């Protein structure tokens, strides 16, 4: 992307953070209580702050972020009802510092495993659980190797539609406007599609054998606060970015 070998790409902010650290701020554990908060933040001041940082890295991020859904925890051994259920729990997480930091704060044993290896790692009991949006759990057939699914909504994840800045700026202004207009419009349609999909999937996954339970987000939020998780990431993201986040979700640290 940065060299121009490809000119457009969609990427999770949580993965983009290896290049642009503040890009993972949308994934702070148990920060967003609803989609209303997500879109007000990411379409507003917090999203603008992140896009400015992306721009400095030589990439152009379009204004409307795409939805990947809230992430849920699954397990082959027990339902996750409270933070105590995560103590010593062997859970697969993506290769990203934010995930590892959060689950360690709960006393879990997170293992960074690439997604292509998740099914086999669960099947062979290298790990006991994983976390992903319901759509990914369904598409990857993780219900075949996971019994329990806890609705935690512990992280919200989305994709930035990115362009190589130099390539994008070579387009005439009118074509830039056409590209931006249509990609942003498609992002809004994606949000609607993902919301409807995830709302329908719990019933489908139940029919495939998964057992669901709901959780109290405030219990998990309090555990992260007590462990110093929010204070740690406030320092890493900086006071300005953290203030913008809290302006939309309320005090965390």
What is the third-level CATH name, the topology?
D-Maltodextrin-Binding Protein, domain 2
- What is the count of distinct domains? 1
The CATH level-2 architecture is identified as: 3-Layer(aba) Sandwich
What overall form do the CA principal axes indicate?
A: globular
Fraction of residues in β-strands: 15-25%
The top-level CATH class is Alpha Beta
Percent range of helical residues: 40-55%
Main structural class: alpha/beta
CATH superfamily, by name, is Bacterial extracellular solute-binding protein, family 7
Order of helices and strands: EHHHEEEHEHEHEHHEHHH
Oligomer: single chain
Descriptive notes:
- It is built from eleven helices and eight strands.
- It has 253 residues and is of the alpha/beta class.
- It has a single domain (8-231), classed as Bacterial extracellular solute-binding protein, family 7 (D-Maltodextrin-Binding Protein, domain 2).
- The strands form two sheets. Strands 1, 2, 3, 6, 7 and 8 form a six-stranded mixed sheet that branches. The protein has a two-stranded parallel ribbon with strand order 4-5.
- α4 links the parallel β4 and β5 (109-112).
- α2 runs antiparallel to α11 (239-249).
- The longest helix has 35 residues, at 173-207.
- The two termini are 35 Å apart.
Describe the protein's topology:
Layout: E1 8-12, H1 13-16, H2 35-42, H3 45-56, E2 59-61, E3 66-75, E4 90-93, H4 97-105, E5 109-112, H5 118-123, E6 129-132, H6 134-139, E7 148-164, H7 165-170, H8 173-207, E8 211-214, H9 217-226, H10 229-237, H11 239-249
Parallel strand pairs: 4-5, 7-8
Antiparallel strand pairs: 1-7, 2-7, 3-6, 3-7
Helix pairs in contact: 2-11
């Amino acid at each position: 992307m940065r060299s121009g070998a490809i000119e457009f790409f969609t990427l999770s902010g949580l993965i983009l953070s290896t290049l642009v650290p503040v890009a993972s701020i949308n994934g702070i554990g148990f920060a967003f209580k609803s989609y209303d908060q997500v879109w007000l933040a990411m379409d507003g001041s917090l999203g603008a702050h992140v896009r400015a940082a992306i721009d400095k890295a030589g990439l152009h991020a379009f204004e409307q972020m795409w939805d990947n859904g809230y992430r849920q925890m699954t397990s082959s051994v027990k339902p996750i009802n409270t933070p105590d259920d995560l103590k010593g729990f062997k859970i697969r997480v993506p290769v990203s510092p934010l995930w590892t930091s959060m689950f360690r704060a709960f006393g879990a044993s997170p293992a960074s495993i690439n997604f292509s290896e998740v099914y086999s790692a669960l099947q062979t009991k290298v790990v006991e659980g994983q976390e992903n949006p319901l759509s990914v759990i369904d598409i990857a057939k993780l219900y075949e190797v996971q019994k329990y699914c806890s609705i935690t909504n512990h992280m919200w994840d989305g994709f930035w539609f990115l362009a190589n800045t130099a390539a994008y700026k070579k387009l005439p202004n009118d074509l830039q406007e056409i590209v931006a207009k249509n990609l942003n419009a498609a992002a809004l349609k994606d949000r609607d599609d993902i919301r409807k999909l995830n709302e329908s999937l719990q019933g489908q996954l139940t029919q495939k054998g998964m057992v669901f339970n709901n959780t109290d987000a405030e219990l998990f939020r309090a555990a992260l606060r007590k462990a110093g998780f929010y204070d740690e990431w406030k320092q890493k993201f900086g006071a300005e970015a953290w203030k913008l986040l809290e302006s939309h979700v309320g005090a965390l640290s």
